[in-house]
Write a structure and sequence with these properties.
2 helices, 0% strand, mainly alpha
Length: 78
């Protein structure tokens, strides 16, 4: 590898690592905001809505990956 390619690779790795290190702080802040909203009211409908939203957000990637593997399996089998 040339020096320029090696430098660009190191720069990209450093950028990705710093992004990954900062990502948990952003996620943690959002959870604190949701918790504050849920603890401030006695309204259970809001809490149920947020819980359902979390379940939908969690389930969609699994469904998409499962469908992708199903189509790959079906394509390889035929």
């Amino acid at each position: 590898m040339s020096k320029k390619t090696n430098f660009l690779l190191k720069k990209q790795i450093l950028l990705v690592l710093s992004f990954m290190l900062l990502l948990p702080f952003v996620g943690e802040a959002q959870c604190a905001m949701c918790r504050a909203v849920l603890e401030s009211d006695d309204n259970t409908a809001v809490a149920e809505g947020i819980n359902n939203g979390i379940v939908y957000l969690m389930a969609i990637p699994y469904i998409l990956i499962g469908a992708l593997f199903f189509f790959i399996y079906r394509k390889m089998k035929s």
